[in-house]
């Protein structure tokens, strides 16, 4: 993967602002143009230290932060709309994804704030989605355009997040209502566990420039993307059809393993990475840039917000 800071970082002298107060029109235009052309902007050297500083900068750059809905990973809320990055074992990579591209709606901008860089690794690798879209095999893309994709999720009490946490309620009726409004079918099992099925499209247009983009969790949630030793245990416990997450074609047919291998390869080819420094603020356009997480050593504190 290319070792590269996302273009040249924007610094306090470029902007003549500390990011905690409203930007003027020229400053906003400059930042928005950079974001649209590169898909990501790194702000470096700003006097941002606390979570509250981060929250102010997010409001300056993207407006009010959104709550994290339909959760797929454990996070702690630090303050309103500000979360820890996914609390997922440090030895494992988190594969490239566009935040919440399995939902009916998703955030436009994501913000990552480095409060403590890890001893090694732990970058947020970034993949250029325009490059991914252009480099995918045309036959594979057309197949998904025609058939769509399906996200199947099984909420097991002993693994992953319980449905009450994912949907933020203990009421089944409230879950049914939310899911009905968001294109998700619910199936309540006799043991009280939940299975959800959502049919989604694989390509979406960017609202800013109309580009058609590969924007989905097809490879991310597919069983072949889970590390081998983990998938072995999960399949033993739940079987393929009971996996916490899996994807199939929109008509329910299996997606061949080699198709997802090809998709993963194209994300990796389109990726760059850089090492965080304390105080770095990374802003990405969630549709133009996919992000992941490298394994790391040491303590790592990255706060995240979405707008
Ligand atoms: Fe993410």
Report on the structure:
The chain has 10 helices and 19 strands. It is α+β, with helices and mostly antiparallel strands and 307 residues long. The protein folds into 2 domains: 2-128 and 275-306, Double-stranded beta-helix; 131-266, Clavaminate synthase-like (Double-stranded beta-helix), CATH 3.60.130.10. Strands 2-16-6-19-4-3 form a 6-stranded antiparallel sheet. The protein has a 5-stranded mixed sheet with strand order 1-15-8-17-5. The chain has a 4-stranded antiparallel sheet with strand order 10-11-9-14. A hairpin with a 5-residue loop joins strand 10 and strand 11 (194-200). Helix 4 packs across helix 10 (257-269). The two termini are 28 Å apart. The chain binds fe (ii) ion.
In short:
Helices cover 29% and strands 26% of the residues. The protein has 307 residues and is of the alpha+beta class.
> What portion of residues is helical?
25-40%
CATH class of the largest domain: Alpha Beta
Quickly count the domains.
Answer: 2
Q: In sequence order, what are the helices and strands, one letter per element? A: EHHEHEEEEEEHHEHHEEEEHHEHEEEEE
Q: What name is given to the CATH topology of the largest domain?
A: Double-stranded beta-helix
The CATH architecture of the largest domain would be: 4-Layer Sandwich
Low-confidence stretches: none
Q: What ligand molecules are bound, each kind once? A: fe (ii) ion
The global form is globular
How many alpha or pi helices? Answer: 10
What is the structural class?
A: alpha+beta
- Into which percentage range does the β-strand content fall? 25-35%
Mean pLDDT: 93
Number of strands: 19
């Amino acid at each position: 993967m290319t070792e590269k800071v996302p273009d040249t970082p924007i610094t306090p002298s470029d902007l003549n602002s500390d990011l905690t107060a409203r930007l003027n029109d020229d400053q906003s235009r400059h930042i928005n143009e950079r974001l649209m052309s590169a898909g990501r902007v790194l702000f470096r050297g700003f006097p941002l230290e606390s979570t509250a500083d981060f929250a102010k900068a997010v409001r300056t750059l993207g407006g009010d932060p959104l709550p994290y809905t339909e959760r797929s990973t454990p996070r702690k809320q630090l303050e309103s709309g500000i979360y820890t990055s996914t609390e997922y074992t440090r030895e494992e990579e988190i594969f490239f994804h566009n935040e919440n591209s399995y939902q009916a709606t998703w955030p436009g901008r994501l913000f990552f704030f480095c409060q403590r860089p890890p001893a090694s690794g732990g970058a947020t690798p970034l993949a250029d989605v325009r490059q991914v879209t252009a480099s995918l095999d045309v036959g594979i893309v057309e197949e998904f355009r025609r058939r769509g994709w399906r996200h199947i999720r099984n909420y097991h009490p002993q693994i992953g997040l319980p449905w009450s946490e994912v949907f933020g309620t203990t009421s089944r009726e409230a879950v049914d209502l939310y899911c009905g409004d968001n294109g998700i079918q619910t199936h309540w099992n006799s043991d009280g566990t939940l299975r959800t099925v959502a049919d989604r499209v694989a390509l979406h247009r960017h609202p800013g420039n109309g580009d058609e983009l590969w924007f989905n969790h097809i490879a991310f949630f597919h069983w072949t993307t889970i590390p081998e030793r983990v998938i072995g245990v999960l399949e033993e416990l739940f079987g393929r059809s009971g996996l916490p997450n899996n994807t199939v074609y929109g008509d329910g047919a299996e997606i061949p393993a080699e198709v997802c291998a090809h998709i993963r390869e194209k994300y990796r080819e389109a990726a760059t990475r850089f090492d965080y420094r304390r105080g770095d603020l990374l802003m990405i356009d969630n549709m133009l840039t996919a992000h992941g997480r490298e394994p790391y050593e040491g303590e790592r504190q990255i706060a995240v917000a979405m707008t």
